[in-house]
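One-letter codes give the sequence; each number marks local geometry. A record appears below:


***
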Amino acid sequence: MTKIRLVILGGGESGIGTALLGKKEGYNVFVSDKGTIKDKYKNALIHNEIEWEEKQHSSDRILNADLVMKSPGIPDSIELVKQLKKLEIPVISEIEFASWFTNAKLIAITGSNGKTTTASLTHHLLKSEESLGLAGNIGDSFASSVCNEQLKNYVLEVSSFQLDGITKFKPNIAVILNITPDHLDRYNYEFESYIASKFRIAMNQTSEDYLIYDADDAVIIKWLEENPVQSTLLPFSLTKVIENGAYLENNNIKITIDNNSITMPTKSITLEGKHNIKNAMAASTVAHLLRIRKQTIRESLENFQGVEHRLEHVLKINKVDYINDSKATNVNATYYALESMEAPTVWIVGGEDKGNNYEELFPFVNEKVKAIICLGVDNEKLMQAFSNMVDIIIETQFMSEAVKIAYKVADSGDSVLLSPACASFDLFENYEDRGRQFKNAVRNL
């Protein structure tokens, strides 16, 4: 019997996880990466006797596939993917492939912002559950986790790119935190396509599955009205009373599921900002659904430390607070960061623009920002948007210089906020690299 030929495009975390799982499940596996594969991944392929190539895509070794797993960073628009689709060779994502080999309960979390925080918080609230994994866009890939251990529950952070490649993937509990324009360069600058992509998370759900979502998000509400889903709906809101779901009442989060209610004081939440009340609502709704004790939920909300690079307090120097929000790679994430600022702010912004519209930030910039430091290769759009709003606006292409300028400009009682609103790829490897460079530069002051 000939083995099914599984070709994997991309030799990163999701690609190698899929390769190892594919090999374990008896596929004939080949990994192809147009760039260079990191040594740790190469060693895993060699050790497991999996064929691979780098710095090229050999079409003769790819177009004979029975099944292709495409890493989320590779767009559908490249010629090779178009050829595969023309040949009717299925092209799937890693979360789809991994889901074929586990019977675990899946809690999948998506949204333009807050995914990592909410996935980490959900995992933290559920950790009294036996046999629990955290995977997807956070930590290990879902595939490598399924390959290495058979767990009963998974909290998965999933992106629109991963959801684009699903066919049967079906979470028992799906969470959509919010939908704001992001990654539009991958969706022909059509917001509707990006929204549809996010809602794929619920496409295979039945009435026995749950969809938790933000009932204050006009984009989500409109889509659900026009495209009903099969799932049992559990909305959360800061402004409306919700019968089945979560809402805010007198600084308490009230969660009701099938007439079973629990109440949590918002002062239990260590994370700052209104958006984090919503993230806590979503995570606590999952915990309540899975019958985690109220006391456990409350204690877990109180001792959750937050996520690196997301409104992370780095140091206080001369009574100036330095805050790393490098994970804010879009305008909406920076909106939340600026909204939560209570002191006059020196704002470090910039990077690779993904078709940003900065207008929604104008009220906060007028009210809270005293100086702007543009950190990017091309800052023209930022300079045009904000130069009339602040007295000081300076350009640089070096993180160390940006931090030194901020140090000079900030007065006692101010905050220095790195919240770029852009992708990092013009000057940095990724948002983590950008955040670490910021923290190192602050520590070197």
Observations:
- The first helix runs from residue 13 to 24.
- The first strand starts at residue 5 and ends at 9.
